[in-house]
Design a protein that fits this description.
This protein is an all-beta fold and 207 residues long. It contains one helix and 21 strands.
Amino acid sequence: MKRIHVFLILIFLGAFGCSSVNENLSQPSKIPQYGYIDNTGKFVIEPQFTVARHFAEDLARVKVGGKWGYINQGGKFVIKPQFEDASYFSEGLARVKLNSLWGYIDKQGRIVIQTKFDDAVEFSESFARIKLNGNWGFINPAGEILVDPQFEEAGDFKEGLARVKVNGKWGYINTKGNMVIKPIFEKVRDFRKGLSPVKVVEYYSGT
């Protein structure tokens, strides 16, 4: 089946324009709602959501009645609105928030990693950042902690390395949790094609 490409659009229900005071008083308040259009401008999912986000891995997160759920490209709920917060699917899992704690669900809406983290981030290269007791670590898709929470801040794994912050400085760990680039930098970014920009206060070339 041909993939449907959709775009988000915010629709203010009702027409804009000048009206009399009496007309304004007689009409109900206009509530902005989100729907989805295709690349011809045609509505493929009617405006009905308080908030809506882009599709990822064939599902989109939407908010209705103060709760987040997930719809398919036909606009049907496949995971009913039930979460305090939610993110997009990545590597088959999505992070969700219940009772102020984060965990992960699969595409059937089953909680596969219990909501027990103070914060969490999407999976990247089969690792996800999680926060416990003020520190960041990493888990695998089974929910097992592979790198103990010990870092002040952390980034996603990219090209086998993740940036981490220790004592106010940034370095990089490998997938085993070993510090392979010492934390000596003021700022760093993720690696791309073997390179990463970094910021230092002083630099001596040694030449």
